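Dear all,

This email documents one entry for the complex benchmark we are building for the journal club exercise. For each entry we list the sequence lines for every component of the assembly. Then comes the predicted three-dimensional structure of the complex as a token string, followed by one or two observations. Please use this as the template for your own entries, and keep the labels exactly as they appear.
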Amino acid sequence: MLYNPHTDEERREMLEVLGVSSVSELFKDIPAEIEAPRIDIPGPRSELEVREELKRLQAANEGEGLPLFLGAGAYNHYVPAAVSHLVMRSEFYTAYTPYQPETSQGMLQAIFEYQTMMCELTGLDVSNASLYDGGTAVYEAAIMAMRATKLRNRVLVDEGVNPLYRSVLRTYSGNLELEFVEVPHREGRTDFEAFRRLMDSDTAAVVVQNPNFFGVVQDFSALAEAIHELKGLMVMAVNPVAAAVLKSAGEQGADIAVGEGQPLGSPLFFGGPYVGFLTARQKLVRQMPGRIISETVDREGKRGFVMTLQTREQHIRRAKATSNICTNQGLVALTACVYLALVGKEGLREVAVQNLSKAEYAKKRLSAVEGVRVKWDAPTFNEFVLELPSDAGRVAKELVREHGIVAGLPLGGYYDGMERDLLVCVTETNTAAQIDAYAEALGRVL
Amino acid sequence: MKLLFEKSVPGRRGVKLPDLDVPRVEPNEAWGAELVRSEPPDLPELSEVETVRHFTELSRRNYGVDNGFYPLGSCTMKYNPKINEEAVSQYGFAGLHPLLDDELAQGCLEVIHKLEKWLCEIAGMKRATLQPAAGAHGELTGNMLIKAYHRAKGNLHKKKMLIPDSAHGTNPASAALCGFEVVELPSDERGNVDMARFREALGEDVAGIMLTNPSTLGLFEENILEIAERLHEVDALLYYDGANLNAVMGYCRPGDMGFDVMHFNLHKTFSTPHGGGGPGSGPVAVNEKLEPFLPVPVVEEDGGRYRLDYDRPQSIGRIMPFHGNFGVMLKAFVYIFMLGGEGLKRVSEDAVLNANYLMARLKERYRVAYDRVCMHEFVVSNTDKAEKGAPTLAIAKRLLDYGIHPPTVYFPLIVKEALMIEPTETETKETLDRFVEVMFRIADEIENSPELLQEAPVNTPVRKLDEVRASRRPVFRYRKG
């Protein structure tokens, strides 16, 4: 049947070796009173039927292919054709965690290259081999900071950090001795004064995002100095595309940088699989969660790569591990590595500049519509907040329904008093014509 | 082999973007020079063809299920059907944003909803969340649910989580991360939980137990019904680590065994590829007791329309920013859609048949840790050969020379010199026979030419790697010069 290759004859031969007459005898340790009923799922079916089902599901996804101005942590970037071609080499994707390094050098070297590039992007010293996604990476960074500061348990989180990430952090911190204080933003920017008031010698870390959820780019150097004086750490969530041009997390004084690696060559995929990255200063390496790859040599002195510092990890340390993570997002880290190699140094800068340029163009075009304005006068990357004259949720719904445009994220559900605000994202995939059409449609629905 | 950075030539370009169709804005104009980084990140500069050759060459230095036998115990390295990959690449799912209105992503929501129903049907549970990104993430979620249950009842004294000594390392790590005090339970001489010690450990302060059944020894826990009954008497909950679910589908259900909460590993049981270390997916299913606490949002169906429901006042909250690893779920959806209940039962039958066959044949020359009928995997204790100078690691490295991925080594921790072997249902009898033949040849080599094991591996792209050096003098990134 399907992927089980045995013929009836072979099954008979195998049972004979075992000295039993039927397969069911091998299940005799299962108590009779819990014998399962028949699994009520139709099948088996063929690939042709799968394809029909997939076509039906595809037709039900009415949002597919619409002009997209929605970001908020998941970004629609151009993915070069070679990326999926290479990542789909089955020697990579049908392997598992490289427990046997001699036969896993391909993946290990690629992850070493990935680590190098993530260090370059964030301006920090060491990178791990990946975490689940940007949101869980923020949480891992927060507890890493707790450990590194000898179990200080207060973490101050800027409201400019993606509210979805903060809600994950809230879920997790509810189960730990972790006091998690959210610091309200001020006009879309970090309220540095509030941070200074709230920071104390029990603060493990300040957590900020750059560009923040509203797209605003800032310099956090002064905040880093202030928290360092108190012997706490700064955790910065960064966008890896913006990192090509924005003053790096390391340059701004961050001790740990995390982020969502999806913009580096992974499609939107309704939310995953994505990849969380985490880099840090060298002195924090033993507190890092997850796999880390190191260069080494083989017995003939030839360069090779292995997983290292495994005594931090759950399979050795068990209840005292730095994290419970085991399976991570290896293939998506490979995707980021392939993407960065293909676009290269100049290419990533060009992607960043195109995002910025198109977002600036969109700001001008959309704010020229009567009653619409860019909410705050602040420097931004590829997202910005648009203030509308009426409820943003209603406007966005009409733009989809009447004009087939996904206009952005209405912020009412995420921030108090922002019912008329829309978070708009523009990437290199949005053409000038799409932006013009958006402006025109917006004028019509208002 | 050279690194990307060593192949880089300044000024060389790979792919090209379209020319900008709006006025160009440089970061220093828009932001001011103080916000612009002083030096660009030093990424490699290569042509497309060089990049393609680089990663193609790397892939040749890697080994996956498509290359050959991969009996890595506890990981269920079964064949990954190619239709799964077609499903995620060709039907438009890749372009859908996770924050689209429900109405625009009905196909995706239907996949999530149906997969939830099917998983519950297979496991005998009530509802599930598909958000967790991997097994360990599912464990953490499950522990949070257990904690929320006890909190809601005001049972704050329930602080202990019982975990057998044969458990995956993620079990104690997840429980500890959730603030539980981990109590380790020893195993008895048949590989079951030691019931005397279990009864001793049991008390009002016990929040729950985390069990893998069949256990990591590949053995069905014979006392499971008593364990469940005793725990429920003190209102403690049972967590089922679904890593080994491949052994029992259609034969018994965690829900019927008495488990209250469990995770699935879609990348083990449900054929989604392991990706060289992820992405996986670790859905968590619960019974009635824990349903109110499930993470938000859940997908509800109403007259063939699907919507995300956030209105769950007792929910523990979100555990992923979006919906989890949707691409992985879609592959598992396709797998279950194709096999159906009947096919899944045959999966478990052949997984168990293959493991028992392999064990029976290997027993001639290798010492099996627990000599009883196994489920989908079994453990060899290699102490006899280790005494002759061939520890488990040497056998593993020698297997590489024969083109076979070694089994899991030195796990479970309670078996000395362990080799944990899980053939899976997708392997032919010839493959199993060849594995036996190679293992016997290695047994001969241990007797007659032990130097072969000391030298191994010799047929791999690199020889044995110096892991001690990597931990004493680690190098985490490339630096020029």
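Observations: The radius of gyration of chain A is 25 Å. Chain A has a mean pLDDT of 96.
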